[in-house]
Amino acid sequence: MNVFEGEIQIRKIRRRGGIGGVIFSAVAVGSNQRFVVKANYQTARSPSLFREMHIWHVKGHVEQTPIKWKDGTTAIENTITPIKMDFVKAAHENLKRLLAESPDFKGISEIKANKLVTFFGDTLYDIARNNDIERLLPIVGEEVAQRIIAGLNQYEELGALRLLDDLGVPPYIGDSVITIWEQQAYEKIKMNPYFLTAFMADLSAIDAYALDRLKMKEDTPERLIAYAKQVMFTGFNSGNTCLETTKVKYQLDRMLGKALGTKAFDKAVEQDELVIHGNLVQVKSMNIVESSVASIIKQLSDKTYNPALAKRIDSVIDSFELGVGFSLTEEQRNAVLQCCTNSITLLTGGAGCGKTTVIEAICYALESLNQTKQVILMALAGKAAQRITEATGREALTIAGFMHNVKPEDIDEDAVIIVDEASMVDVLSLLKVLKRVPKRGRIILTGDQEQLPPVGVGLGLHVLVNLSLANPHLSVVKRQSESSGIPNIASAIRNYPANKIEVPFTPYQGLGKGVSFIDCEPSNIEAMCMKVYQELGGNGTDDSVVLLSSVKHQEGGVVNLNSHVYDKFALGEKLTLAHIEFGNVNHNIDGRPIKIGEMVMFTRNDYKKDIRNGSVGKVLGFNDEDVTIDFEGNIVELDLNDLVNIERAYAMTVHKSQGSQYERVIVVVKNSRNLDRHLLYTAVTRAKQQVIFVGCRDTFHSALEKSNALNRNTLLATHLMRCNFK
């Protein structure tokens, strides 16, 4: 078998695989020898990067393949099976050919292409980067000039995307790199691939590329700093915004050896990439984030309002009460007063204590008193935002939707921003929202600090409640869900450390209301959960009954529970994808094919599609390249590369359930590091009608005594103290 190595130019794309791989015809640059290239999914993970007339450097095995055309004639094709392929930026003659023949540059004749390259040479790329249309007008018209600039910029992006693909960078991260660096991405990555640590924590492929291909030295400062930052970024996975200095040094020594590890830490501190705070160290970017949050909060808390405003609020609340037909408690009236007379307020309280009613009253009061014409309601999760809309009759956005769809200039200077379920909001999201609070505006963070901390990095509400901010707290349970008793049970769990009141369970009798406990041996938990799931009406077609667990992969964990529901109820057509080597294949989750009608969860944030980590949807259909999923009314077409971010959602971790509510939940009670009072409290408040705990009662009581969830290393409180905030 012969080996070919050289540059080829793509003539025609014959087929792109749905999950990788591509087949195309090509000619060798210089000899015009014809080939057919069949690249598998390993050498062509992103088929969309291959375009007609683009040039690639290919190394691979060549064999002669007999083919038969539709008219019955036969021929022999020289087929290359690539071992390696690299994108080649067209120059000189190849650039002329690209301009004259590529469909991306319609309207450019061979003569014009020759003139352009002869006159400008490779500076055409600089002209495109600078969007300098004027320089092209002596040779081509404005419309063609715009097409040249758009085409060359896209062409340069493809080079960067191919390099990212080579490094194993997921497509969604590649898109972010291109969005930020645009046409400079390729040169930036070639110059210093360690820049990519800002987007991904896995250094292995980047390191191999830098050392083997670019011949960078092991003690290159860029490499050492990248390793120091990687240790810090890994801490983000546990919610930490900072780490103990000794642990960072230990990890660097383990990864690089003692000498280089010490050098890496010192170099990162010297160049201000790491910032030391006592015995803790924080990466520069997170230091900026937390200090910025602290600074904005300090500025907001220093604002004052006319004292006369407070005197007018009581009568407005009276008017509100007449409209709704019931009276507010003293706690609620005080909460309305504080939220209306401060620029930043924390409105906290447990489940069923009337926070939503207070939000309605705040909106009514501020609008009645002409304090604002614009109230913006939002929450992190789609379902939480939908719930506010239903409860208040006012449109609520997700935070992602607010950031991407509401322009700063569309926010009134006296606008009021209300963030519900603020305990879920990580410090990065909090900063984004705080930056949008206008000069004369207000922000109200509503939530419950006893809920689990954010899935994302840092702590927001959980830290702020310990400061001297306006913080009206609601403690009187107002809502009992039609005698379900869930709020009272939730309150007993929430306040257990203070009152030690025994949680009063209702005997389980099948479908009903209330909170019950089924004692069960650990080995029988999964079978019992499935039995209860079916008795409550669970059938795998919706999320009216959801299984919750504190663990993912162990016995009684999310993966096993999802598999049991799937085996019993998943009856739809299997999702079939086009594969370049193996034909039609099924895409699996945990060893089982995805089927139409399944409930699935997206596991990362995609702001363009307005879906977040934890969004639940139903698979509606698919074709060779796309999967259609209904995420709570948001119909999304997912690229097949996104399927790595899909999990089943019959069962989920309690963390992932935050912000959502279901008619009924079944909660696994099994010893785990995560099981504590905050997790149990969050789990029970996910249900509207019925909660069934399944497991060991002693384990449940032990968990009530634990409070591990908030054990995160953060420095927001330190940054607030530096702003002279107490």
Q: Order of strands side by side in the largest beta sheet?
A: 11-10-12-13-9-14
The count of DSSP E runs of length 2 or more, i.e. the number of strands, is: 28
What CATH architecture label of the largest domain applies?
3-Layer(aba) Sandwich
The oligomeric status of these chains comes to: single chain
Structural class: alpha/beta
Q: Tell me, what is the CATH class of the largest domain? A: Alpha Beta
Fraction of residues in β-strands: 15-25%
Large-scale geometry: globular
Helical content stands at 25-40%
Number of helices: 26
Q: Taking all residues together, what is the mean pLDDT? A: 86
Sheet having the most strands: 6 strands, parallel
Commentary on this structure:
It is built from 26 helices and 28 strands. The chain has four domains: 3-89, OB fold (Dihydrolipoamide Acetyltransferase, E2P) (Beta Barrel), CATH 2.40.50; 93-271, no CATH class; 296-474, Rossmann fold (3-Layer(aba) Sandwich), CATH 3.40.50; 479-695, Rossmann fold. Helix 3 (123-129) packs across helix 4, helix 8 packs across helix 9 (245-256) and helix 19 packs antiparallel against helix 24. Strand 10, helix 15 and strand 11 form a beta-alpha-beta unit. It is 38% helix and 22% strand. The model has no long low-confidence stretch (mean pLDDT 86). The protein is an alpha/beta fold and 726 residues long. The protein has a six-stranded parallel sheet. Strands 1-2-3-5-4 form a five-stranded mixed beta barrel. Strands 15-28-27-16-26 form a five-stranded parallel sheet, with helices on both faces.
